[in-house]
């Protein structure tokens, strides 16, 4: 059976959120063993080392095309490597976990809004499906008590996390139109180089903090290798392909499924229970994604 571009993009988006959902489990296991910004820098350095094994000939061959797309690649590298995770970690220092989760799941709706602003007409069903999936996500992060959302107190970290959600939405628009002859190998390699250079100052700041920790044990090594190869190299590669094949709006809708997968992985790997809240929110999220695809 021949897969349509949207079907291919959906598969790549599902692979992305599956990997990123698993990364939450790894991050939780690594708490107290390695400082977050250092973990971020180490994972992208591993990604860089792996790319070095095969990317340079491709980058050299495609450099003439890459130069025409360099502003977009630089923007993508700054967002994906040096801003997205550090902003999340900084936000976490001044706000609650529920606020972080609540704001993070608004990213797909920002993708829809950004696409509309940039002239891509969005169907009524896309807006309806987005709102249904968003409601399911809110229901999940509030643990089924939507009244908790009314009592939330917002802090500086919430503004930072909101900025994080918005810049990821705009990141997803960067790769809508990739020049012919430019591969993901070249894009990801150049993104990683740019992002690592920009990330160094924040890592230096973290090392100077009294709370800095870096325990070179088996858990830390596993965390760095898993997040470097799976979460940085593979997941961002898949996400870029999801946006190229299915478009940012459809890929963003599938992004809503990440809380559901996170709950499933937490159940199987660290024993967290699945409750009726997870089931109801999962049905709403999946239903919203399905609704958004209706013509």
Automatic annotation (TrEMBL):
Residues 8-141, 157-291 form the EamA domain. The keyword tRNA-binding does not apply. It comes from the Bacteria. InterPro entries: Diverse_Substrate_Transporter, EamA_dom, EmrE-like. It is a multi-pass membrane protein. The chain crosses the membrane at residues 12-31, 37-57, 69-91, 97-117, 124-142, 154-175, 187-207, 219-239, 251-270, 276-293. It is found in: Cell membrane. GO terms for cellular component: plasma membrane. Its main location: membrane. The keyword Cell membrane applies. Keywords: Cell membrane, Membrane, Transmembrane, Transmembrane helix. This is Hypothetical membrane protein.
């Amino acid at each position: 059976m021949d897969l349509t571009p949207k079907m291919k993009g959906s598969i790549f988006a599902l692979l992305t959120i599956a990997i990123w959902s698993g990364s939450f489990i790894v991050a939780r296991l690594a708490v107290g063993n390695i400082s977050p910004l250092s973990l971020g820098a180490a994972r992208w350095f591993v990604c860089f080392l792996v790319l070095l094994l095969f990317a340079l000939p491709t980058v050299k061959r495609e450099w003439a095309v890459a130069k025409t797309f360099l502003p977009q690649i630089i923007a993508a590298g700054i967002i994906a490597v040096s801003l997205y995770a550090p902003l999340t970690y900084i936000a976490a220092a001044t706000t609650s976990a529920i606020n972080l989760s609540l704001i993070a799941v608004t990213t797909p709706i920002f993708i829809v809004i950004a696409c509309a602003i940039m002239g891509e007409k969005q169907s009524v069903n896309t807006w309806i499906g987005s709102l249904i999936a968003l409601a399911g996500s809110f229901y999940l992060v509030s643990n089924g008590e939507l009244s908790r959302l009314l009592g939330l107190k917002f802090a500086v970290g919430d503004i930072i996390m909101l900025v994080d959600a918005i810049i990821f939405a705009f990141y997803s628009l960067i790769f809508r139109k990739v020049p012919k002859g430019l591969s993901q190998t070249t894009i990801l390699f150049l993104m990683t180089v740019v992002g690592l250079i920009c990330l160094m100052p924040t890592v230096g700041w973290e090392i100077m903090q009294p709370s800095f920790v870096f325990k070179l044990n088996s858990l830390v090594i596993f965390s760095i290798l898993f997040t470097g190869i799976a979460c940085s190299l593979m997941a961002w590669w898949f996400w870029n392909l999801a946006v190229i094949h299915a478009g940012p709006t459809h890929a963003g809708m599938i992004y809503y499924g990440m809380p559901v997968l996170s709950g499933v992985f937490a159940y199987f790997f660290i024993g967290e229970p699945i409750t009726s809240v997870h089931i109801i929110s999962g049905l709403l999220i999946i239903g919203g994604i399905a609704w958004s695809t209706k013509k």
